[in-house]
Amino acid sequence: MYELENPSKNPSCPASVQVTGPLFNEDAKSILNNDALAFLSSLCNRFSGQLNSLLAERKRKQETFDTGVLPDFRTDTASIRDDRQWKVADIPEVLLDRRVEITGPIDRKMVINALNSGANVFMCCFEDATSPTWENMVNGQINMRDANTGTMTYVDPKTGKYYQLSSTPATLIHRPRGLHLQESHILFEGKPMPASLMDFGLYFFHNYQSRNARGQGVYFYLPKLESMEEAAWWESVFDFTEEYFSVETGTIRATVLIETLPAVFQMEEILHAMRKHIVGMNCGRWDYIFSYIKTLKNHTDRILPDRHAIGMDQPFLEAYSKRLIQTCHRRGALAIGGMSAFIPAKDPDEMARVTQKVIEDKRREATNGHDGTWVAHPHLVSLARQIFDEYLNGEINQRHFIPDGSFNSEILLRPSHGPKDEPGVRKNIRIAVLYMEAWLRGVGCVPIYGLMEDAATAEISRANIWQWLKHQVSLDDGRPFTTELFRDWLDQEAKNMKASAGNDECRKFDEASELFFTLSTDAHFADFLTIPCYAKLE
Description:
By secondary structure, this protein is an alpha/beta fold. Helices cover 47% and strands 13% of the residues. It contains 19 helices and 16 strands.
């Protein structure tokens, strides 16, 4: 156990942080040095209690939704929405051009490839695209430090290929873990510390000086917020951090992922609460679909069809996209579109299909009014940029454009229609188990059936199945979808997946299958599958 040394040198920061994970090399010791731990202790001491209260409020609010109440716009914050004068702070020049952003995990080679991809921004994900083993989390911070100093290199042990950063890498934005997650290898007052504070704190501590030397601030993507109070919590964290290190207000800048149903009804309030530091919002659409199911899981009139049939052309998703654009642009913020998770295919016909799908998706986003978009693979950067360039007419964003329409609560909550069939269930099973199996082995970003999948995919899959079982849905062929039928199909698919993997004893298909079955059939819907899975990870 590694504890904060010489706490008396910082009397405002008690010796309340202990690192229980191994410091496996000198770089790890450097990341978790005494001063860094002192800062983490200060963050936890100031903000962990408030965070617990916010998470308790999440649960209380969900209980009201479970009794039949629908999400809606708040009456107590109408004055914020009605006041047309306020705007967010001016956006730094380096963040004004967000036409193409690439996202990915914290793996060293993938970080280099993403930064060299030609995208405007690389969002490095410590959350849904990363399995949070202790080694992954610490190595991720090492990689971020080296990326920001420009010293990052990598030699592939299998091929001997050498990787290094280009002279013009993408702008790096860090995505810490969500407010609901904990880090069990760093204890604060004997309990696991908030993972969000660990990721944020270590990243800022080790990188604000190197980024300042290049004329940049420290930039974050914030996931899974549900309310303006949670946004205000982050704003307080930012204020505290800037004062702690004696840097200018606005050194920290954030883009908020709108990927929960409650948050879409508080977008203006979130912008207002973070107006000193926020620069934009992003449509985290896969998590948003999951949140729609989770939030409305007890509402019999809001059962979603097979999630593979739910695209951005569905009215409730189209309204979500346009309301986000409308809200952001009215307040001077950027509105970033969602992920195209496709990866290049070797087969020419399949690649043509992938290309067409990406074109259709990005064209919809650009015509809706988004300022940029996400891709998951470097080979799709130029295609996405070409489409946005066609619509931006030489501009770097389209903040001047405000979509028409009210996009009220009725359309934001409108039920979606589509198939409910065996092929859809089986595909949900395969994708979720394949992803969870990899996650349990420490891999959080997984190519499956031509898509680069992260935790959001497994979440949608198990939520889709849970909701159908909960409400005793009948499939399109008339068969009732029962727990017994699900168990049979899960066992069949797991057997096939194990056989396809050569029955490798190092794989974790049995464990992943059982976890998936439990999460999909429990009477109590787990808020996030990554919480029970984390207990199994190490």
